[in-house]
Design goal:
Helix content is about 50%, strand content about 15%. The chain is built from 8 helices and 5 strands, in the order H-E-E-H-H-H-H-E-E-E-H-H-H.
């Protein structure tokens, strides 16, 4: 399966494959070593996003959940290589859901960490430039966009993500929801993703997930979103 990420789209590279050399990609911290996915470094301490997101949640989310996606993706990739070597088509087909789920989990979370920043580093500061213009033209302002994304998040049944995406063909932005760990691939480029899985908030907010959806905007790193939009 994919060995590393190259080019401007981390997601496309993961699905199509590349060399085993570690390279910078669309997700700055997303790295591969010797053909294996690796956990990216966080650009801030676990407690740096408090009180919006507790340090304990960040630690568990990053060290336990994201690491599990990395480990499971690597394991499934090795099994897929073995199945290909044997010409076992049935086994290859059976492994694809695991590749999608755990590989998607790795990609989604690598993007998610970059979506966030402490307030001292610009977290929560509104977008500017071309992205701000696109938001105003499409949604009538940042507050309206946030409200629509929060509504989309609240409507997710079970686990999933809400994304602000850019259409690669038209350049238009829109809001999409994806179930489980399905990654944003194909026609759309992910700009901003918010994790609606319970492991992202339950330890702190319990069943008050609407409070989590509101609080996370205080630490959104719009500068990273701007860079993705302009890429």
């Amino acid at each position: 399966m994919a060995a590393s990420l190259i080019g401007t789209s981390a997601r496309t590279a993961l699905r199509s494959g590349a060399s085993a050399t570690q390279r910078a990609a669309g997700v700055a911290g997303l790295t591969f070593a010797r053909g294996k996915a690796t956990l990216p470094d966080l650009p801030y301490d676990f407690g740096a996003l408090e009180p919006s997101i507790s340090g304990k949640i960040m630690e568990l989310h990053y060290k336990n959940h994201h690491q599990t996606y990395v480990n499971s993706y690597n394991q499934a990739s090795e099994q897929l290589q073995e199945a290909r070597a044997k010409g076992d088509i049935a086994a290859q087909i059976a492994l694809q859901p695991l590749i999608n789920f755990h590989g998607g989990g790795h990609l989604n979370h690598s993007l998610f960490w970059e979506n966030l920043a402490p307030k001292s580093s610009g977290g929560g500061e509104p977008p500017s430039g071309a992205l701000s213009k696109a938001i105003n033209e499409t949604y009538g302002g940042l507050e309206n966009l946030q409200g629509k994304i929060n509504t989309a998040l609240a409507g997710i049944q079970g686990s999933g993500w809400a994304w602000l995406v850019r259409d690669k063909q038209t350049g238009d932005i829109s809001i999409k929801t994806y179930a489980n760990q399905d990654p944003v691939v194909g026609q759309f480029e992910p700009l901003l993703g918010i994790d609606a899985w319970e492991h992202a908030y339950y330890l702190q907010y319990q069943n008050r997930k609407a409070e989590y959806f509101k609080a996370i905007w205080e630490v959104i790193n719009w500068k990273t979103v701007e860079k993705r939009f302009s890429a």
